[in-house]
Write a structure and sequence with these properties.
11 strands, nine-stranded parallel beta sheet, Arginase, Chain A, two-stranded antiparallel ribbon, alpha/beta, 313 residues, globular, 18% strand, 33% helix
C-alpha cells in the first residue's frame, strides 16, 4: 500500500520540531510493572462544590496544557526529557452518589500508592472535596502526613449544613484522625473570604495559618522553607494541596471562587519549587479549576507549570 504523504492516521496533525520534547511526550499510561519518577491520577469530581462548578473537566484540560511546554529548563540548563511520568488515568465516579464517588477516589488513590510505581504523585481534581479521600489514602500508606494548603479559604466548614463538600475536606480529615491540626499549614488565606467562627476553629485546632498579609511581610519562599523543615521533622510525608483560588483572579480566572489580592503566578511557582526541594514532599493535588470559566486556559496552563515545578527540581 502506498504511504500517505501528508496524512498521519491516528496521530495529531501538528508541527513537530525534531529537537523539542514536549512534556506530554514523556507521559505513558500505567500498565502492571510500570516504573517512573512521577505518577498522575485524575480525580474528576465536582458535585460536592458549594458553588456551580465544572471542575470535573479540569484533569483533561490540565493534561492538554502540558502539551504546550517543553521539558527543557533554560534557567537550570537541564532537559527533563528522560523524566518518566506514569498516568493512571481518571477515576470513574458515580453519576449520582457522592459518598460512593468519594469512596472510589479513596480506593483508586490507595491502589495507585500500593503498586509503588513512582516516587512522587500529582492528583488532578476536581473540587477541593477530593482532597479528603486522597489525603486519607496517603495517611494510611505513609503514616503521619503534613499538609501545606494553598488556599484563599480555610475549608473547615461544619458538616451539618451541607455534608461533605469542597468546603469541608480538612475538617473531615482532622475529625476522622487522618490529620493533626498542628500538621496543617494554610497559606494565602484571604481577607473577607472566611468567617470568624472558622478563624477561631483553626486556632483551636493548632493549624498554622498564613494570611496574604503574612505572605507580603515574610515572603512566601521563607514561609514554605520554614514549614517544610518543621513538617519534615514531625511527619512521615508532606502533601501539597493547591487550591487554585489562592492565586489572584488576574492570574487564575478559571476558578469558581475568584477574588483579588491573592498570590501572583510567580509567587506560587516559587513556592512549589521551594517545597519540591524537600525529600519528604511527595505529593501535590491541584483543585478548583473550572475550564468553562477560564480564559484561554490561563488557569490550566498555570497548573501545568506548577506540575513541572513540582516534578522537575
Amino acid at each position: 500500500m502506498e504511504h500517505f504523504r501528508y496524512l498521519r492516521p491516528g496521530k495529531p496533525a501538528v508541527f513537530k520540531d525534531q529537537y523539542v520534547t514536549k512534556v506530554t511526550e514523556t507521559i505513558s499510561a500505567y500498565v502492571p510493572g510500570s516504573r517512573g519518577q512521577t505518577a498522575i491520577i485524575g480525580l474528576p469530581f465536582s458535585k460536592s462544590s458549594i458553588s456551580l462548578s465544572q471542575a470535573a473537566e479540569a484533569p483533561a484540560r490540565i493534561r492538554a496544557a502540558l502539551g504546550a511546554y517543553s521539558t527543557y529548563s533554560g534557567e537550570r540548563n537541564t532537559d527533563y526529557k528522560d523524566h518518566s511520568i506514569i498516568d493512571f488515568g481518571d477515576v470513574l465516579t458515580h453519576p449520582a452518589d457522592s459518598d460512593e464517588s468519594l469512596n472510589r477516589l479513596y480506593i483508586s488513590v490507595k491502589q495507585m500508592l500500593e503498586v509503588k510505581a513512582c516516587e512522587k504523585y500529582i492528583l488532578l481534581g476536581g473540587d477541593h472535596g477530593v482532597s479528603f479521600p486522597s489525603i486519607k489514602a496517603f495517611h494510611e500508606q505513609f503514616g503521619s502526613i503534613g499538609v501545606i494548603q494553598f488556599d484563599a479559604h480555610h475549608d473547615v466548614r461544619n458538616l451539618e449544613d451541607g455534608g461533605r463538600t469542597n468546603g469541608t475536606p480538612f475538617r473531615s480529615l482532622m475529625e476522622s484522625h487522618h490529620l493533626k491540626g498542628s500538621h496543617l499549614v494554610q497559606i494565602g488565606i484571604r481577607d473577607f473570604s472566611n468567617a470568624f467562627h472558622y478563624h477561631e476553629y483553626t486556632k483551636e485546632q493548632g493549624i498554622k495559618v498564613y494570611s496574604m498579609a503574612d505572605v507580603e511581610h515574610d515572603g512566601i519562599v521563607a514561609i514554605i522553607e520554614n514549614e517544610c523543615r518543621r513538617l519534615s521533622k514531625e511527619t512521615d510525608a508532606v502533601y501539597l494541596s493547591l487550591d487554585m483560588d489562592a492565586v489572584d483572579q488576574a492570574y487564575a480566572p478559571g476558578c469558581p471562587a475568584i477574588g483579588p489580592g491573592g498570590l501572583t503566578s510567580r509567587e506560587l511557582l516559587a513556592a512549589i519549587s521551594a517545597a519540591a526541594n524537600f525529600k519528604k514532599v511527595i505529593a501535590m493535588d491541584i483543585v478548583e479549576i473550572d475550564p468553562s470559566k477560564d480564559f484561554r486556559d490561563m488557569t490550566s496552563r498555570l497548573a501545568a507549570h506548577a506540575m513541572m515545578r513540582f516534578m522537575y527540581h
